[in-house]
Design a protein that fits this description.
two-stranded antiparallel ribbon, 9 helices, GMP Synthetase, Chain A, domain 3, alpha/beta, 6 strands, globular, 192 residues, 3 domains
């Protein structure tokens, strides 16, 4: 983001870039608020955007470099600073242990993560971003862990269920369980 450019929230950036429309954003925001999940994760799960689009927007939003994860070569010294478990849990790949500790993350504003890494490295950090799936694959490869199978991408996006449909199905299942527990006959809802 250049000096003087107005700060845009992630959803507004996606709208301005034409990645999604207002209706999809509003639906995503509603699900995000109801589920207490981050809007980027919700929009990805709903099939409205992909990880690359979210990573690019976050990089632009916060002024970080978007790393081409296929081109990175982590040093042994950097990898030794973080355990594979930590790297996978927090989705962080250590690249270089020099004057600054350089690493790739998916969330540039996770203060808990950046503070923890800075304490481990005992030096300033230099962060860049990458999408989650390629970053997790790179972490597994860097630490010599077996690769996870990659799910085949569908040619067409699945339409997410309407929230009302999901809620109605959940209510029906709950009522069926209650009626069964109380000894009601399912079709007539009468005591047996």
């Amino acid at each position: 983001m250049s000096v003087g450019e107005q700060y845009l929230r992630l959803g507004d950036m996606l709208l301005r870039r034409g990645v999604l429309d207002r209706r999809k954003l509003d639906r995503g925001l509603r699900v995000s608020q109801e589920s207490k999940r981050r809007i980027g994760d919700v929009l990805i799960d709903m099939g409205y955007v992909d990880e690359d689009q979210i990573a690019q927007c976050l990089a632009d939003q916060y002024g970080f470099e978007l790393e081409d994860i296929s081109q990175v070569k982590p040093t042994a010294a950097a990898l030794s600073m973080l355990t594979p478990e930590f790297a996978l849990k927090w989705c962080v790949l250590a690249l270089e242990d020099d004057i600054r500790f350089r690493c790739v993350v998916i969330d540039p504003v996770n203060i808990e993560l950046t503070d923890t890494i800075a304490m481990i490295a005992r030096k300033p950090l230099s962060l860049s971003l990458a999408p989650r799936t390629p970053l997790l694959q790179a972490i597994r490869a860097a630490y010599g862990l077996p690769a996870l199978p990659v799910a085949a991408k569908s040619r067409r996006r699945r339409k997410p269920p309407e929230p009302e449909t999901v809620l109605q199905r959940d209510r029906t299942m709950l009522l069926d369980a209650v009626y069964s527990e109380l000894g009601f006959d399912e079709p007539t809802r009468r005591v047996s």
